[in-house]
Amino acid sequence: MKRTLLILIILIFISTASYAVEDEYLDIGLTRPIKSKYSVNLSSGSGFAIYSEDGRYLGDINETKIKVDFKQGAFTISSNDGFLLHSVNGNFMLSNRSSADGIISVGDMSYRAYIKFKSFEGSPVVINRIRLEDYLKGVVPAEIGPSSQEEALRAQAVASRSFALANINKMIKKGYNMDDTTACQAYFGTQKEDPRTSKAVDDTRGIVARYNGEIANTIFFSTSAGVTENAADVWGGNLPYLTSVKDPYSASSKNFNWELNLSNTDLQKVLINNKKDVGFINNIKLNINPTSGGVQGVIFTGDKGQAEIKATVLRTALGSTKFRSTWFRVGFIPEGDFTTSLPSVDSQDNDIFMMSSTEKTVDRGDKKFVMGGADSKTIVLVKRTKIHNRNENKIEEPTISQLSNITYGSESYNVSDTIKIVGRGYGHGVGMPQAGARVMAEAGTNYEEILKYYFKGVEIGK
User: Fold this and answer.
1) Residue 54: pLDDT band with limits 50, 70, 90
2) Which of 165, 192, 383, 390 is the most exposed place for a label (fewest CB within 10 A)?
3) With helix as H, strand as E and coil as C, how does 56-81 read?
4) 83 pLDDT more than 70
């Protein structure tokens, strides 16, 4: 009876406006541990409890290792040696028999709370039904890594919590709220949980970012190219808190600079797959965002004609882990096109000074300076007083030298058999760059200030 009441409470949907967000349960579609969704191996040290989808307790399973099969539209539960334990009519859920919040292994990965098996449009779906705060403990270490500074971890926890609630029905047409991939948020169950990231989740429990009273869609990514992108330029729409901001802090990331060598044939295949055959490519023209310097469109001219393709489409087609961002040029980055190096400074200015390429941080009295740079030629100087003006309780935008003097338009390149792409940043470029958040945290900026810097106009709280 107690189990039935517990699961019924879990299944009741309550609006985020009328209850604490940390009490929310999510259905997360599992892809990582599933080799075949038609036959799934599970284990639990204390056996399993079975529930129907509507919360009715169906019984216990003493076996610690079981297999769930889906055949002819129905689920069966068998022991590892093939002995039939249960035939289940309809969808059902399993929990650890000793605790509803206990751990169940699915394949070679482990999850808290419930594993749900659902027939959706004739196919089986495997879902982890889990409380929001426990879900975040599997997300934050996967997204930013546990070695990041404490305030960066807290910023990620709030961003991930807000993102989850803002996108709670992103994949409802597939039978669950979100999945475990980067299409939503990277989620590895208990596999990557770490005391430091779990503490960041606990420290910010229930705290979200809001814009005009609504939970903000606090999108994040790895590393900017020195300026974040307007969401409207990347995906369309108009979210005032997802606008372009200067971000020299990401320049210290190993992902700030990248290169990729492509053959002419590689690019021809992309165009053909998009029904735009121009033949052998002899010229590439980049249409560049005047605000960020990122590429919006690419025009290819070949011996059969000319065609244009969106930079986001090109990146996806060539692989987003290789073609790391849409901030790129062909062959080389022209001098002055963009730089995060500081202008010359007055040696008498005691608040600003240069550091060698080997220095990471320098403390001078009540000021802390952070050096970034993907190589010895790039030095980024972050002056704490420029990050946070404590008298006005706000963050001031840092200055990136030369950026304000550049007018971006288009750049054209003649190419041949091999095409070298050079770029900066890693990810879609919208929202909070995790690399930038780390550097801001190292300079003493707290998580609320970090979030308010990258998401303009948001309020942070419960």
Assistant:
1) confident
2) 390
3) CEEEEECCCEEEEEEECCEEEEEECC
4) yes
Q: Give me the pLDDT at residue 55, please.
A: 76
More confident residue, 31 or 363: 31
What is the C-alpha separation between 75 and 91, in angstroms, rounded?
8
Question: Tokens 């079975």 map to which residue?
Answer: 50
Q: What confidence score (pLDDT) does residue 291 get? A: 85
CA atoms of 316 and 298, how far apart (whole Å): 14
Other beta carbons less than 10 A from residue 259's beta carbon: 11
Q: What is the mean pLDDT of the chain?
A: 83
Backbone angles phi, psi at 343, to 5 degrees: -70, 170
Retrieve residue 444's tokens: 């003493």
Distance CA 253, CA 255 (A): 5
Provide the pLDDT for residue 340.
41
Listed residue (76, 172, 169, 158) closest to 120, CA to CA: 172
List pLDDT tens digits, range 196-225: 999 999 999 999 999 999 999 999 999 999
- What does the pLDDT look like over 330-354, one tens digit per residue? 987 765 454 443 333 233 333 333 3
Angle at 121 between CA 120 and CA 126, to 5 degrees: 25
Task: Please give the Cα distance from 408 to 414 (Å, whole number).
Answer: 19
CA 187 to the chain's CA centroid: 10
Look at the block and give the residue holding tokens 């019924």. Answer: 8
Which residues, including other chains, have CB under 8 Å from residue 166's CB and lie 6 or more apart?
A: 215, 216, 217, 218
Q: Measure the CA–CA gap between 74 and 90, rounded to whole angstroms.
A: 7
Which conformational region is residue 173 in: left (phi greater than 0), alpha (psi within -120 to 50 degrees), or beta? alpha
pLDDT classification of 395: cutoffs 50, 70, 90: very low
Count of C-beta atoms within a 10 Å radius of residue 286: 21
* CB 391 within 8 Å of CB 272: no
- Left, alpha or beta for 206 (phi > 0: left; psi -120 to 50: alpha)? left
Contacts 24+ apart (CB under 8 A), 295-300: 295/326, 295/327, 295/328, 296/233, 296/326, 300/267, 300/271, 300/276
Domain-wise residue ranges, the chain: 2-131, 135-244+431-461, 245-427
Looking at 237-325, list the stretches that DSSP marks H as alpha helix, in order from N- to C-terminal side: 264-273, 311-318
